[in-house]
């Protein structure tokens, strides 16, 4: 049997942001996925396996190593593949470099949430962070929000924000590096945060009414980007109840401390997508979307990539 191998470098130019967003939208009209995670190792060396099955779509396993010390030698810290299986026969449809799936999955998840929650007249995107996800956020939002006229990038190290802005200077909406977070937030319509913060860096008192907050960075119980004040005054949604509400500090801390109740998390993409595009009560509300990721999203995106490259 011949197995298709799909790599990042050979394929990334074929993948369009809106196409991936639409694949996620359609995927959430199907039956909810079964998902399981397995992590092995420690001390900076780990193997993370994420698996999902969606009836009618198939199975996927994403197997990645995470070697933290590789960063010091210029090697990738995360390396792996996604195995995509046919739902009818169990045959392997494709083996896809995980970097390709993860890059588009992570940002398209946020884009789908923002298309449902951000104000239609949003013009100014502020990105917190200056890594690979932040770069993809700038590209993805510019490609799918045609009304955007400004993108500002803030990072705790201003030189990193400047370097990212320089790399994207030829983009349709060239970003600008900013050092004053309070000033940027005072004019933001959408705030996308993609940092590895373990203590809140996004204070609620600086966020103006009508802003949409897109939280991407935190993925463990010890990580947080938004403070309690922002959580408390926001209309909260998540991508998936199963992968977020009991697993990520952004929500577990405020719930445990009585800042919000579980019922204050109003919905996830499985309830939002079938209900239609607008889940904002008014233009003055602060909406918040917690992007938690998950193997079900990897499966939806892997299926899309296999189809467009087949």
Explained architecture:
With 310 residues, this protein is of the alpha/beta class. It folds into two domains: 5-102 and 296-308, 2-Layer Sandwich (ornithine cyclodeaminase, domain 1); 106-294, NAD(P)-binding Rossmann-like Domain (Rossmann fold, 3-Layer(aba) Sandwich), CATH 3.40.50.720. Helices cover 33% and strands 24% of the residues. The protein is built from eleven helices and 13 strands. The chain has a seven-stranded parallel beta sheet. A six-stranded mixed beta sheet has the order 1-6-5-4-3-2. The model has no long low-confidence stretch (mean pLDDT 95).
Set down the secondary structure blueprint.
Layout: E1 5-6, H1 8-11, H2 17-27, E2 34-42, E3 45-54, E4 58-67, E5 78-85, E6 92-97, H3 98-117, E7 124-128, H4 132-144, E8 150-154, H5 158-167, E9 176-177, H6 181-185, E10 190-193, E11 212-215, H7 228-232, E12 235-238, H8 241-244, H9 249-256, H10 269-275, E13 287-290, H11 295-308
Parallel strand pairs: 1-6, 7-8, 7-10, 8-9, 10-11, 11-13, 12-13
Antiparallel strand pairs: 2-3, 3-4, 4-5, 5-6
Please summarize what this structure is.
This protein is an alpha/beta fold and 310 residues long. The protein folds into 2 domains: 5-102 and 296-308, 2-Layer Sandwich (ornithine cyclodeaminase, domain 1), CATH 3.30.1780; 106-294, Rossmann fold. The protein has helices at 8-11, 17-27, 98-117, 132-144, 158-167, 181-185, 228-232, 241-244, 249-256, 269-275, 295-308, and strands at residues 5-6, 34-42, 45-54, 58-67, 78-85, 92-97, 124-128, 150-154, 176-177, 190-193, 212-215, 235-238, 287-290.
């Amino acid at each position: 049997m011949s197995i298709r191998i799909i790599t990042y470098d050979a394929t990334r130019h074929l993948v369009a942001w809106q196409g991936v967003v639409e694949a996620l939208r359609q995927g959430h009209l199907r039956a909810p996925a079964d998902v399981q995670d397995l992590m092995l190792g420690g001390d900076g060396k780990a193997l993370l396996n994420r698996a999902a099955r969606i009836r009618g779509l198939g199975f996927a396993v994403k197997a990645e190593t995470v070697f933290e010390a590789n960063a010091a030698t210029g090697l990738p810290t995360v390396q792996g593949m996604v195995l995509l299986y046919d739902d009818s026969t169990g045959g392997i449809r494709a083996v896809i470099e995980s970097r390709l799936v993860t890059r588009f999955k992570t940002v398209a998840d946020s884009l789908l949430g923002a298309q449902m929650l951000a104000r239609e007249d949003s013009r100014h995107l502020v990105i917190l962070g200056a890594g690979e996800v932040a770069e993809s956020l700038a590209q993805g939002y510019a490609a799918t929000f045609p009304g955007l006229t400004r993108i500002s990038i803030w990072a705790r190290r201003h030189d990193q924000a400047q370097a990212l802005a320089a790399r994207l200077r030829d983009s349709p909406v060239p970003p600008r590096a900013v050092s004053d977070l309070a000033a940027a937030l005072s004019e933001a319509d959408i705030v996308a945060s993609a940092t590895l913060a373990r203590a809140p860096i996004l204070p609620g008192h600086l966020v103006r009414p009508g802003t949409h907050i897109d939280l991407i960075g935190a993925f463990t119980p010890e990580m947080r980007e938004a403070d309690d004040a922002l959580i408390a005054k926001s209309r909260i949604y998540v991508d998936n109840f199963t992968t977020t509400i009991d697993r990520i500090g952004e929500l577990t801390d405020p719930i445990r401390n009585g800042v919000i109740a579980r019922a204050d998390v109003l919905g996830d993409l499985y309830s939002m997508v079938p209900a239609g595009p607008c889940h904002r009560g008014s233009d003055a509300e602060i909406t918040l979307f917690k992007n938690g990721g998950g193997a079900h999203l990897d499966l939806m995106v892997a299926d899309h990539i296999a189809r467009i490259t087949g």
